[in-house]
Amino acid sequence: MTNRNTDIALAALIGLASVAFGAFAAHGMTDEKAIGWLKTASQYAGVHALAVIAVAALTRTGLQIITGTRLAFLAGVALFSGSLIAMAFGAPRWLGAVTPLGGLAFMIGWLLLAVSVLRPQSAG
User: Fold this and answer.
1) Mean pLDDT of successive 10-residue segments in the chain (124 residues)?
2) pTM, to two decimals
3) How far apart (Å, rounded) are the C-alpha atoms in residues 3 and 124?
4) Residue 121: its pLDDT value, please?
5) What is the reported pLDDT for 95?
6) Phi, psi at residue 61, to the nearest 5°?
7) DSSP string of the chain?
């Protein structure tokens, strides 16, 4: 299995988790703050799962994507969404200090993608 296939499989599992956590927020939680954290985590994880799949698809067209773009998106999901999900299920609130690092990882991923598509591509 290639690295791209692994990334797509991870993105698919993140998409699955995104739907599951979103549903749990809607139907299984009563604490409003926890519901908000789960909804936000689910939304961002779902969007960035699709971003990983898009990057893998673009790479297959021959576009040279900067190394680390997909990793930045995956790290963002782990840090941003992961910290919010953990807090929703009772982790200490100080874990919220990790959340902005995930947001930064998301932004780095988007920047790397933009630079990748705007830079000159080699012919081979």
Assistant:
1) 79 97 95 97 98 95 94 98 98 97 98 96 73
2) 0.93
3) 20
4) 86
5) 96
6) -80, -5
7) --HHHHHHHHHHHHHHHHHHHHHHHHHT---HHHHHHHHHHHHHHHHHHHHHHHHHHHHHTT--PPTTHHHHHHHHIIIIIHHHHHHHTT--GGGGGTHHHHHHHHHHHHHHHHHHHHSPPP--
